Amino acid sequence: MYEKEKGLFDAFVAGKLSRRELLATSAKLGISAAAGGMLLTAAQTRAMAAEFDWMAHKGTKLKLLLNKHPYADAMIANLQTFKDMTGMDVTYDVFPEDVYFDKVTAALSSGSSEYDAFMTGAYMTWTYGPAGWIADLNEYIKDPAKTNPTYNWDDVLPGLRASTAWNGVPGGELGSADAKQWCIPWGYELNNLSYNVKMFEKAGVQPPKNLDELVATAAKLTKDLGGPYGVGVRGSRSWATIHPGFLSGYSNFGQRDFTVADGKLTAAMNTAESKAFHKQWVQMIQESGPKNWSTYTWYQVGTDLGAGASAMIFDADILGYFMNGGDNKEKGNIGYAPFAANPKASAPTPNVWIWSLALSNFSAQKDAAWYFMQWASSVEHDLFGARKMDFVNPVRASVWKDEEFRSRIDKSYPGYLNQHDTSAPGAKIYFTAQPLFFDLTTQWAETLQKMVAKELPVDEGLDKLAANIDKQLKDAGLG
Amino acid sequence: MTAAADHVTQPKTSSRFFRRALPYLLSLPALLVCIGILIPFFTAVYYSLLRFRLNLPALKGFIWFDNYINFLSDPAFWNTVKISLVYAGLTVGVELLLGLGIALLLQKPTRFNNVASILLLLPLMTAPALAALMWKLMTNPNFGILSYFVSLLGFHNFKWASDPSTALLTVTLVDVWVYTPFIMILLLAGLRSLPKAPFEAAALDGVPRSFVFFRITLPMLLPYIITASLFRLLDSIQQFDIIYSMTQGGPGDRLMVFQVQSYLEFFQYTNVGRSAALLIILWAITYLLSNVFIKQWLKLRERAHGGA
Q1: What is the pLDDT of residue B296?
Q2: Which of A294, A435, A439 sits opposite B162 (nearest CB)?
Q3: N or C: which terminus of chain A has fewer CB atoms within 10 Å of its end residue's CB?
Q4: Residue B141: its chain A contacts at CB < 8 A?
Q5: Is the bond into A393 cis (omega within 30 degrees of 0)?
Q6: A354, containing H or E segment
Q7: How far is B41 from chain A (nearest CA, A)?
Q8: Do B270 and A105 touch (CB under 8 A)?
């Protein structure tokens, strides 16, 4: 009896059976949904193991450094599959995001071999890569002896592959031919509007379609709702304030952080268009943002939406996704809308954040750690996370096409797929890759805080910021 | 007999050697401690003389005092100096006044006062970062209990740490909440150890309380006050947890104190040279301040001995 069930799921994984046929036959065999899930995972594991020696590093112990995130939760939930398939043992430390990257910096800068692989963002690799802390993964991906032939690297969305590859040249184009692959995309987020449908109905407004409408709608919501504020955006004194909604809107107006000429960088945030954008952004926060905006991180922006304290957010789409579930007060009330800030733009241009996996150069067992990384970023694990866990947004094209995943999202999160699919073609990293990323974006956030607090006029603030940044670029030999 | 004599001579030689070596052996732990302290210090000094960014290894090299010169010519650095000193002065001043006041109230060793002094120590047992988190929640404009109380007083849009005009006040409140008990307990110990005779004499003569306080209690308590202030000042000028947890040095650069700036330079910007230079400058300021305090303390002690 068990062999029959096994054969059924093996046939499905091998593509010999459609999903409809699998479901029908499973029902006939009396296989429950839970048992079906387990059998499917086991069949996928067998399929993966069939063409590659997953047991090559049997007995090796790996240690991971993870950020507390649903992507990490999905991986942990499926980790036993990897252990069974490879005979390796995997332990991990999980830290909240507030301290996570400091922990990574501390571990890597000290040359510690404690962690073999870790979660990172693409921006961080602009520091870790040139510092020699992480391995160039091209050496692994392109080596058939180390990489499963079914790994299908090309299935990873091209924009994300390019965004995680950099040649180390300040201002160098991401994903260029000479770029090193500093990390493997794992899950990503793009920035759009997530809004409270009930509040919008109450105030009689529609999701705004550009920045002018966003500022006006947020103000109307703040005025009419009598409690919740109009729009949540990040505001802490950190690079993290610049990269989500702010840079997504900014880029939509064709604005850049730097211009690159003859290998030298020049600050570009004090153009007339940039000043106009900043003025509107500042006005929006002053009129309709959270009262204590200057302390707002991802967590505050999200929890306010989930708790009904804000009517909409311009932040990561997955943040809106998480607030529509769980124990949130506004669960089921959240809608999603693509957003192009510039009325003249044909489509949104969201800046992306890519949760990725990187391989520590100080690991004593890099080959074994690479086995873990390719499993964690495999189609099979991506599918598991997308179907069974909150592994949105997956990085593989094949998973985005998966019917089960799409119908689950479409049913429980109306509008989510539309905002994603509309924005995905224009989604990429809009920052210029350069080694002073964290210094300069933090200064940008600091200037923004001063503008919102009316300590500094926008024009003067941006001129000062650009001059200051240019000086630092020159000091570092980049300007 | 000869064998016995030899037997006696042998320990004499070894004990002589041991006696000679003893001072060196005794000072060895101190030497090791000194080395343990000095190595990191001189390493930081060495790094502060370098252009050293972890992510720009090709640029690494001696620039001697350029990091210091760059700081001294940067208005942002002087803002850091100003904020650090103002923060330290403000917190220590308020904590001293409050700590002294509470210590005076609890001076008599009654059962109630003993229990109260233990209860008042509770904030000191709280990790400063945790205290900051607690206060961050209490001052949240949407649901914070303190925001509710100030709204009853008519301040409906009070922004606490997120507004430049009230940020310093907010973090000072947290610092005062955490560390006032430290001053209180030191001064309470001082008050209870003061000789009773002068107070009894003053009571017999019917001297007014204010006179007793300003002319007897305060001068006798001064060494304790200086010690407590010195400890707190050294700590306060190096404040990190509360400010970073609440504001990350913002809004703008309103709370950009030394430790926060140095932390950001190292952990976020990976600029080892600048981070080390900032810490060496902080060390110099702390050294100067402690010197002033210790000199004052020694003067007072001399005066006390002379008086005796």
Answers
A1: 86
A2: A294
A3: N
A4: 290-292
A5: yes
A6: strand A352-359
A7: 17
A8: yes
Q: Is the pLDDT of residue A362 over 90?
A: yes
Task: Quote ipTM for the complex.
Answer: 0.86
* Residue A267 distance to chain B (closest CA, Å): 18
- Per the CB < 8 A criterion, the answer to whether A417 and A449 are in contact is no
Grade residue B17 by pLDDT with cuts at 50, 70 and 90: confident
B299 pLDDT band, cuts 50/70/90, is: confident
- Nearest chain B residue to A435, by CA: B55
* Residue numbers in A near B264 (CB within 8 A): 442
Of A73, A70, A156, give the one whose Cα is nearest residue A395.
A156
Q: Which residues pair with A336 in a beta bridge?
A: A194
Contacts of B249 in chain A (CB under 8 A): 237
User: Between the CA of residue B166 and those of A292, B81, B154, B171, what are the distances in Å?
Assistant: 12, 19, 16, 9
**Facing residue for A438 by CB, picked from B59, B159, B268:** B268
Q: What are phi and psi of A18, to 5 degrees?
A: -80, 165
Residues of chain B in contact with residue A129, where contact means CB-CB under 8 angstroms, are 55
What is the separation of C-alpha B36 from the centre of its chain, rounded to a whole number of angstroms? 21
Give pLDDT, residue B308: 42
**Cα gap B176→B172, rounded to integer Å:** 6
Q: Which residue's structure tokens are 């760059």?
A: B70
Using the predicted structure, report yes or no on whether residue B135 has a pLDDT greater than 70.
Answer: yes
pLDDT tier for residue B288 given thresholds of 50, 70 and 90: very high
The answer to whether residue B13 scores a pLDDT higher than 80 is no
